[in-house]
UniProtKB/TrEMBL annotation:
Broad class of the protein's primary localization: cytoplasm
CDD domains cross-referenced by the UniProt entry: TrmY-like (cd18087)
Annotated InterPro entries: Alpha/beta_knot_MTases (IPR029028), TrmY (IPR007158), tRNA_m1G_MTases_N (IPR029026)
Protein name: Putative pseudouridine methyltransferase
Entry keyword set: Cytoplasm, Methyltransferase, S-adenosyl-L-methionine, Transferase
A biological-process GO annotation: methylation
Organism: Shewanella litoralis
Subcellular localization: Cytoplasm
Keyword S-adenosyl-L-methionine: yes
Highest taxon, organism lineage: Bacteria
Molecular functions (GO terms): methyltransferase activity
Residues involved in S-adenosyl-L-methionine binding: 132, 186
PANTHER family: TRNA (PSEUDOURIDINE(54)-N(1))-METHYLTRANSFERASE
Protein family (similarity comment): Belongs to the methyltransferase superfamily. TrmY family.
């Protein structure tokens, strides 16, 4: 199993604001692009992937939308609008939720009011955490654990205080090369690196 967490610090948890953020300063389209490249391959989807999108621009709780590739039904197409609509639907379902509640959205998709910090604490019990960042170990020198979980951000960097808590959870840092890439490009390289080692 491969897990990916995208911490989207600029993404609104209100579904209308989320949709309005496409192509604007919130750059919510990043989430659709990353979702596309983590879950799908040509003519199919990967069957061993779980993706967590953590949307943090909120006046109450972060929303963590989870996509499990093995449980997803027919998604209805790979275009950006379809994927952003799936995220917006999960946000609508999450309206009025209290802290740390979970709701089902549709097959393979759930939404939780859980923070990034709490989520990674939970994931660290099952997975080896790897943070994608330019100062990390070159990916080709990394020996991956059997259950890796990759942590990425949107265009806003991980806050400094998160580095200490991630360190306590044994997070390793990975570099994917000299260029600053989009999160959606990082996940393709990670998948490919793992695919080549199978
Ligand atoms: C567009 S980048 C984020 C840019 C952000 N402004 C920053 O300075 O970190 C999106 C995600 O991809 C990761 N990333 C981008 N290029 C990378 C590279 N060459 N190696 C490792 N991670 C990378 C970043 O760490 C971040 O999690």
């Amino acid at each position: 199993m491969r897990a990916f967490v995208v911490r989207a610090r600029a993404a609104p948890v209100d579904s209308q604001q989320f949709l309005a953020g496409i192509g604007q300063s919130a750059h919510t389209e990043i989430l659709a692009h990353t979702l596309m490249n983590t879950l799908f391959v040509a003519q199919s989807h990967r069957d061993d992937v779980v993706v967590y999108l953590v949307l943090e621009s909120t006046s109450d709780f972060s929303r963590t939308i989870c996509f499990r590739s093995s449980e997803l039904g027919h998604i209805g197409g790979f275009h950006e609008q379809n994927l952003t609509n799936k995220i917006a639907k999960a946000l609508t379902v999450s309206k009025g939720m209290d802290k740390e509640q979970l709701r089902d959205v549709e097959a393979g998709i759930t939404v939780r009011t859980v923070s990034f910090e709490k989520l990674v604490q939970e994931l660290a019990e099952d997975y080896q955490l790897y943070m994608l960042e330019k100062k990390g170990t070159p990916v080709r020198d990394v020996e991956f654990a059997s259950k890796p979980c990759f942590l990425l951000t949107d265009h806003i960097p991980m806050p400094k205080k998160s580095f200490n808590s991630l360190k306590r959870l044994g997070t390793q840092h990975i570099n994917l090369g000299p260029k600053m890439l989009f999160a959606s490009q990082c996940v393709v390289l990670i998948h490919n690196e793992l695919d080549m080692r199978l």
